[in-house]
């Protein structure tokens, strides 16, 4: 059943006359005068399109009216109106003006004259309200239309300026603009963790029928549930950020604002909106009806809304929202440190959690030693709850601290990058028995370009005033392996992790004069035009090695 907008064909004076002449015959009471005014306002209203979702902007306390009339055809036919408030509660109603079938039918076709308008003054007509609603829920009215009825929709917001969406359709045979909800539209919480919540919901019939055009989108926030995607987008905008319309539906990365982060993985689009009131996440996961929400904060209440979205029309409907509180984070496990014992800690870069070590002092003066094995690590040391050291470490680092007997020291370690990091830690009060060897001023290995040949390279490194053992190892690598070899090198590992074929030599040396504590070594038997990775290990009295920074050198191609 198609719409026919008769006012386009009716001259202005005839339309006004038609509206007035079909009012109540004797407008003697105030209610009758109100009906007359309503009818006159049909002319001042806007056209409501059939089969299309329209956005209507409302000013506070100022009613806005839309109307429509139907073509002649079947005497009765169904029509549906869906109204979606996008912010505050509104009032809306449907009024019907039933007049002469012959007049409205002819007017719709443009078959009219002045005599016809005059005669129609005696035609019976009534104005009545057939539906009224107040609230902020998505509401749908379904009724039977008549070709001799003129309908008016009136909308009013009494709280503040707002906007709504309105959808009218008289075509019930070509599918729905809005996806359908299941008979039970609730969202079930089936799992709660410290940082995750697992949700499930019954499939929408639309997903089962039109899988390629329908998808589910999840909204997560810390404030409250939303009854429509339109309301959610309005709330996000009002929190101080710009949210492109139907962002979760359009899946357009170029629409993102600086406050938004988009993550696309495993066919899921996740958009995180940063705001002072907390973050709002929109996650579209295709047609899966079970989802585990990751990366939540412990001991926090979250609200979850599922929207089933028609990708062809951008129309959506909401399941009944739910909420859940994540579990409290358990107290971090604290490992007790023992005097002189070395602990190696591996830190998870993705979780960014602290690893805690505790030590109760048996002497007034103690020393913490940290050897960075891989990655980047932040060290935070407190004494009786007060910070005494906080820094990112590299290589070998000592902290000598003074206090009282039985002072409690807490060491917290965390990786400062996304990849895993590793560090060795020792605490000791015996400064005369160092765990690690005396170190030179620099742990860099130098190569001499002018001394390179097709089958040999010459390297040099600094020593100390203490006689120590140095072992040199080499490894043949390819051009595309350089970055990974240097990046993944474990600076705490010793020669025991190397192949025997990679060992070049071991030697002892020292010099009382640090200016002369330098040694060189020429490594022969190499292949021309080939990359080699060279490592030097320094062994002290305790036997624990210190690895110099790896050096990559390429032999000459031609000599």
From TrEMBL:
<dbReference type="Pfam" id="PF10179">
    <property type="entry name" value="NDNF"/>
</dbReference>
<feature type="signal peptide">
    <location>
        <begin position="1"/>
        <end position="21"/>
    </location>
</feature>
<keyword id="KW-0964">Secreted</keyword>
<dbReference type="InterPro" id="IPR056225">
    <property type="entry name" value="NDNF_N"/>
</dbReference>
<dbReference type="Pfam" id="PF19433">
    <property type="entry name" value="NDNF_C"/>
</dbReference>
<dbReference type="InterPro" id="IPR045805">
    <property type="entry name" value="NDNF_C"/>
</dbReference>
<feature type="domain" description="Fibronectin type-III">
    <location>
        <begin position="437"/>
        <end position="545"/>
    </location>
</feature>
<keyword id="KW-0677">Repeat</keyword>
<dbReference type="Pfam" id="PF24354">
    <property type="entry name" value="NDNF_N"/>
</dbReference>
<keyword id="KW-0524">Neurogenesis</keyword>
<feature type="domain" description="Fibronectin type-III">
    <location>
        <begin position="179"/>
        <end position="316"/>
    </location>
</feature>
<protein>
    <recommendedName>
        <fullName>Protein NDNF</fullName>
    </recommendedName>
</protein>
<comment type="function">
    <text>Secretory protein that plays a role in various cellular processes. Acts as a chemorepellent acting on gonadotropin-releasing hormone (GnRH) expressing neurons regulating their migration to the hypothalamus. Also promotes neuron migration, growth and survival as well as neurite outgrowth and is involved in the development of the olfactory system. May also act through the regulation of growth factors activity and downstream signaling. Also regulates extracellular matrix assembly and cell adhesiveness.</text>
</comment>
<dbReference type="InterPro" id="IPR036116">
    <property type="entry name" value="FN3_sf"/>
</dbReference>
<dbReference type="GO" id="GO:0008201">
    <property type="term" value="F:heparin binding"/>
</dbReference>
<dbReference type="InterPro" id="IPR019326">
    <property type="entry name" value="NDNF"/>
</dbReference>
<dbReference type="GO" id="GO:0007399">
    <property type="term" value="P:nervous system development"/>
</dbReference>
<dbReference type="InterPro" id="IPR055271">
    <property type="entry name" value="NDNF_Fn(III)_1"/>
</dbReference>
<dbReference type="GO" id="GO:0005576">
    <property type="term" value="C:extracellular region"/>
</dbReference>
<dbReference type="InterPro" id="IPR003961">
    <property type="entry name" value="FN3_dom"/>
</dbReference>
<dbReference type="InterPro" id="IPR013783">
    <property type="entry name" value="Ig-like_fold"/>
</dbReference>
<keyword id="KW-0325">Glycoprotein</keyword>
<keyword id="KW-0732">Signal</keyword>
């Amino acid at each position: 059943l198609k719409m026919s907008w008769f006012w386009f064909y009716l001259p202005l004076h005839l339309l006004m006359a038609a509206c007035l002449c079909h009012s109540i015959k004797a407008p003697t009471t105030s209610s009758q005068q109100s009906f007359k005014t309503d009818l006159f306002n049909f002319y001042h209203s806007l056209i409501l399109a059939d089969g299309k979702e329209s956005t209507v902007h409302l000013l506070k306390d100022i009613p806005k009216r839309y109307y429509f009339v139907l073509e002649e055809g079947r005497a009765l036919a169904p029509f549906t109106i869906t109204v979606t408030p996008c912010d505050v509660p509104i009032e809306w109603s449907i009024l019907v003006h039933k007049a002469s079938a012959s007049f409205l039918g002819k007017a719709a076709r443009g078959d009219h004259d002045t005599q016809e308008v005059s005669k129609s003054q005696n035609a019976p007509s009534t104005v009545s309200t057939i539906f009224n609603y107040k609230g902020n829920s998505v509401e749908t009215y379904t009724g039977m239309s008549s070709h001799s009825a003129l309908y008016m929709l009136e909308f009013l917001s009494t709280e503040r300026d707002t906007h709504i969406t309105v959808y009218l359709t008289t075509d019930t045979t070509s599918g729905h603009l809005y996806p359908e909800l299941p008979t039970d539209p609730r969202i079930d919480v089936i799992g709660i963790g410290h940082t995750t919540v697992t949700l499930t919901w019954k499939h929408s019939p639309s997903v089962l029928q039109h899988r390629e055009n329908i998808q589910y989108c999840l909204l997560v926030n810390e404030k409250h549930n939303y009854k429509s995607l339109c309301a959610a987008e309005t709330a996000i905008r009002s929190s101080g950020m710009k949210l492109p319309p139907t962002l979760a539906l359009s899946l357009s990365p170029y629409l993102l604002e600086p406050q938004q982060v988009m993550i696309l993985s495993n066919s899921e689009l996740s958009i995180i909106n940063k705001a002072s009131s907390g973050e709002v996440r929109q996650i579209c996961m295709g047609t899966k009806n079970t989802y585990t929400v990751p990366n939540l904060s412990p001991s926090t209440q979250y609200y979850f809304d599922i929207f089933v979205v028609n990708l062809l029309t951008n129309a959506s409907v909401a399941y009944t929202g739910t909420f859940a509180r994540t579990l409290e984070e358990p107290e971090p496990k604290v490992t007790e440190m023992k005097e002189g014992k070395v602990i190696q800690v591996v830190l998870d870069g993705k979780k960014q959690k602290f690893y805690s070590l505790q030590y109760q002092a048996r002497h007034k003066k103690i020393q913490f030693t940290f050897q960075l094995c891989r990655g980047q690590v932040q060290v935070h040391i407190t004494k009786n709850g007060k910070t005494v050291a906080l820094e990112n470490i590299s290589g070998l680092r000592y902290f000598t601290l003074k206090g009282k007997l039985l002072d409690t020291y807490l060491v917290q370690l965390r990786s400062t990058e996304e990849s895993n990091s590793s560090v060795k830690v020792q605490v000791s009060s015996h400064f005369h028995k160092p765990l690690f060897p005396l170190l030179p001023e620099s742990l860099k290995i130098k190569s001499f370009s002018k001394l390179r040949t097709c089958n040999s390279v010459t390297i040099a490194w600094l020593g100390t005033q203490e006689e120590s053992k140095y072992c040199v190892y080499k490894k043949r690598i390819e051009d595309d392996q350089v970055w990974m070899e240097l990046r993944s090198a474990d600076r705490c590992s010793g020669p025991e992790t190397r192949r025997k074929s990679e060992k070049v030599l071991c030697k002892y040396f020292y010099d009382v004069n640090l200016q002369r504590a330098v040694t060189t070594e020429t490594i022969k038997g190499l292949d021309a035009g080939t990359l080699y990775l060279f490592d030097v290990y320094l062994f002290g009295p305790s036997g624990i090695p210190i690895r110099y920074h790896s050096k990559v050198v390429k032999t000459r191609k031609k000599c």
